[in-house]
Amino acid sequence: MTAADAAAILPRRAGLAAAASDAFWRRPTLLLLTLLLPPVLWLGIIYLGSLFALLAQSFFSIDEFSGLIQYEFTLKTYGELLHPANLDIIVRTVLMAAVVTLAAAVVAFPIAYYAARYATGRWKALFYLGVMLPLWSSYLVKVYAWKLILAKEGILNWIFAKLHLTWLLEAWLALPLIGGNSLSVSYTGTFLVFLYVWLPFMILPIQASLERVPGSLIEASADLGGAPRQTFRHVILPLALPGVVAGSIFTFSLTLGDYIIPQIVGSSRLFIGQAVYAHQGIAGNIPLAAAFTVVPIIIMGFYLWGAKRMGAFNAL
Amino acid sequence: MSASHDKSSRAPLALKIAAAAGLLFLHLPILLIFVYAFTTEEKSYQWPPPDFTAKWLAVTWNRPDVWEALGLSVRVATTSTAIALVLGSLCAAAVARTKFFGRETISLLVILPIALPGIITGIALRSAFSLAEIPFSFWTIVLGHATFCVVVVYNNAVARFRRTSGSLIEASMDLGANGFQTLRHVILPNIGTALLAGGMLAFALSFDEVIVTTFTAGQQATLPIWMLEELVRPRQRPVTNVVAMVVVIVTFLPILAAYYLTRDGDRIAGHGK
Predict the structure, then answer these.
(1) Regarding the domain with residue range A82-310, which homologous superfamily does it belong to in the CATH classification?
(2) How far is CA B90 from the centre of its chain?
(3) Tens-digit pLDDT profile for chain B (273 aa)?
(4) B122, B216 Cβ separation under 8 angstroms
(5) Cα separation, A205 vs A207, whole angstroms
(6) Which residues pair with A69 in a beta bridge?
(7) A149 contacts on B by Cβ (under 8 Å)
(8) Per the CB < 8 Å rule, is A22 touching B6?
(9) Distance of alpha carbon B196 from its chain centroid, rounded?
(10) Residue B3: inside a domain, yes or no?
């Protein structure tokens, strides 16, 4: 051992790896850049690049006679969105997304509330898995399962028949708008499948926000004479609201963009996603399809902005 | 009384019923798939099933198109997961360890591919491929899948990085290890299970993805694409039932495994950080 080895500043180590390691240690920015470069390049080029390419295309138009895309800047395609038929599609999709979101919040809350405030140990794990398994299990299998359930000869009609309630189901299906020939070709069916498929996305954020409500606040409310109902209304619910908003981001956004559920369970009236798919596919009208995708992007932009102001991002 | 809201106290009956009904609503439809996989009824979705048989398992086994779709799905999911593991953990390491300008933007960039509706990602990629004149292939599917798989690896890795004490890394460096030795002997063992869990979830996500795939696959069919075709134009319903059951099993296993791998972490995260 020489004096130099014992010095506070170590000598340069030999070898390529060691040299690189030393360089990273001296210049943390270099390390940071090396770490960030691959993911940022990938997401920047492949994802953002194609997103911008898509946006650019929405400012082109399609020649009505030749069916060819004209590469000139125009707002004509956006004007087409305002045609009654297209406006109808947008309104219908937004309404469906709103109703699904509200229903999901109502169904999700008790599950999240029980899991967060009452379940412990084994039950807690069971609740967690009970939400995670349906969340992660195959989207198409879930839609398929509902096709089995809603079919004319399926389980739901059988249950109604056994309960002698077929008249009720028929009365419901006779209603305008939400009814139809059978459940699997009605908005009621579409709504049920949307609700089912996105429900776990609502449960998890609500549960997370409920778990962060300090027990001492609830005790304080009770000590001050608040009945359980009052405590829930004035303490728990306001604190859980950011979680509900966070969950609604998912349910709302996913419903806005989905085109498979309304195609498989639903009427022939289109949703935004179906319109996008139809325009880019058979019609070959990429500009209009692109303009249609801008609608959910803008709606979600405002939604996220509002959600951020409500503090929902901290609940994610 | 304060005890009425204590975790050890009992929940109101109405809440119990609502929570149980909600969980049943989430699970019964999936269980139904298992019943239908064994029904003898071929032409319709008749309930209750007239009788049960296992012969559709054999029929499905002998269908080459199912095997082809399954093979493609497994290859796509494996490749996408590998890419996502590299990109996601690099990104997580950068974001978790240092504060830098644009850090929030990076996390937004990673989340964006699943925050925006899948159809947007799908059509954006498709129009980009057609602008760049890239023909559809195995790799165009992988490009899309890897892009949205990054986020699950990133989420798992970043959570674990935040819990891994920085002093461990400093101690390793103080003891004379270089950066790569620290990575191999200290960092990787610490985040290993989180990466494994993230990888499994990424695999499940890719294995199941249908919306982006419909835009980025040409003539090739992954298993979800195969199922979608069967849903739109049914050929042999019992085979679809069996495939659906297999898909449920194939995706449940990695999710259960991922849960057990990150279980301790979730307990920490769940206790009000």
Answers:
(1) MetI-like (1.10.3720.10)
(2) 19
(3) 334 444 446 778 888 899 999 999 999 999 988 888 888 877 777 778 887 888 888 888 988 988 999 999 999 999 999 999 999 999 998 888 777 777 778 888 888 887 778 888 888 998 888 888 889 999 999 999 999 899 889 988 888 888 777 778 778 878 877 778 888 888 888 888 889 889 988 998 898 889 899 988 888 899 999 999 988 888 888 888 899 998 888 888 888 888 888 776 544 433 333
(4) yes
(5) 5
(6) A62
(7) 29, 32
(8) no
(9) 12
(10) no
Residues of chain A with CATH 1.10.3720.10: 82-310
In the block, tokens 């963009």 appear at A257
Whether residue B48 lies inside any domain: the answer is no
Residue A119: which region, alpha, beta or left (left: phi > 0; alpha: psi -120 to 50)?
Answer: beta
Q: How many domains does chain B have?
A: 1
* CB within 8 Å: A134 and B26: yes
Residue of B nearest to A232 (CA): B5
User: Predicted ipTM?
Assistant: 0.81
Residue B4 lies in a domain: no
Across the interface, do B26 and A113 touch by the CB < 8 Å criterion?
A: no
Output Rg (C-alpha) for chain B, integer angstroms. Answer: 23
- What residues have CB less than 8 Å from B258, skipping those under 6 apart? B196, B197, B198, B200, B201
Query: Do the domain assignments include residue B22?
Result: no
Which residue range forms the structural domain that includes residue B101?
63-262
Residue B156 sits in a domain whose CATH number is: 1.10.3720.10
Residue in chain A closest to B269 (alpha carbons) equals: A208
Phi, psi at B39, each rounded to 5°: -75, 155
